[in-house]
Amino acid sequence: MTSDEIHPVRPAVRRTRSGEPGVKEVASLAGVSWKTVSNVVNNRPNVRASTRDKVLAAIAELDYRPNLAGRQLRQGTSNTLVLAVPEISSPYFGRLAEEVISAAKRRGYTVLTEVFGLDPEAEKSVLAGYRDRMVDGVIYSPLTMDLSLFQTRTDTTPMVLLGERLSGAGVPHVSIDNDASARNLVSHLAARGRRRLGFIGARPGSGEGTAMLRLDGFRRGLEECGIPYEPDLVVDVQHYSREEGELAALRLLNSGADCDGVVCASDVLAVGALRAFRRRGLRVPEQMAVAGWDDIPEAAFMSPSLTSIAPDMPALADEACRLLLARIAGTDLPAEEVVIPHELKGRESTY
């Protein structure tokens, strides 16, 4: 080195007790105040572009990672949502989770999944909230729910319901039109000459739950088509699964009831019912037509392929996130009801 060469002396980087660089170290390296670093980290607009570039360069050089938890505590927000569902292993709820996570991510939010299973008490616990977990809002897909539980809810965490229409609950919700879609299925089967239709998937005691809404729509569809409603052709289930669908279909056949078509309250029930009919030697759809809801991936690839109501899942997730984030932002909105589109996908099981 010659005597006329001058090299700037960079300040020594001092580390925090944890060994990681902190805000003060970034500020020292960038030659700015710690407040300026905070403004850059929080993406505030009142920072010159050249200053922002210096701070970002210092952050990159030091591999500085902001204390997210501390920032969340100061701001009172976590950018975290909860999706509460009865199960995640079923095709419908698995797809729902994927779509909600994607819709939330586009808005800068992370999603935690809460699975409450078939336990009514665990399901009710969702209403108690997540105050100890720094959650900004909840997207809740209940199996059964009583209006009184919402009316006595004390937790103030913003919430959106999926699939339920609880008038007076004061909670926004997003659903398909269960009544219209059930009537669509009945009309579809009636147009193909089916006159003795059964329903698999009733869940007594589920209040305004999806199963009963679909059963009510099924009854209205029969009335519109001039087909008598026969209670003996309605089979209850404990929950939605292939096993329950098979058992319900076998009970229907064992009852000796004369039936030429069944509407199942979900595709997984329909998959089980199809297995039962095959075991008994019934040809589908020649002797027994079968239809379901949800348009799970399995529906298009099984043999025979399954006629199903296909909800617009991306729209459902997007609307749920939109409504929830409006509530989180403090927007004073009424308890909005959003009905998303659905499509009847006719396949081999009814043709």
UniProtKB/TrEMBL annotation:
UniProt-listed InterPro entries: HTH_LacI, LacI/GalR-like_sensor, Lambda_DNA-bd_dom_sf, Peripla_BP_I
Name of this chain's protein: LacI family DNA-binding transcriptional regulator
Domain HTH lacI-type span(s) in chain numbering: 21-75
Keywords of the record: DNA-binding, Transcription, Transcription regulation
UniProt keyword Transcription regulation present: yes
Record CDD domains: HTH_LacI, PBP1_LacI_sugar_binding-like
Pfam families for the chain: LacI, Peripla_BP_3
Superkingdom of the source species: Bacteria
One GO MF term: DNA-binding transcription factor activity
Species of origin: Paenarthrobacter sp. AMU7
Region (Disordered): 1-21
Keyword Transcription annotated: yes
PANTHER family: HTH-TYPE TRANSCRIPTIONAL REGULATOR GALS, LACI-RELATED TRANSCRIPTIONAL REPRESSOR
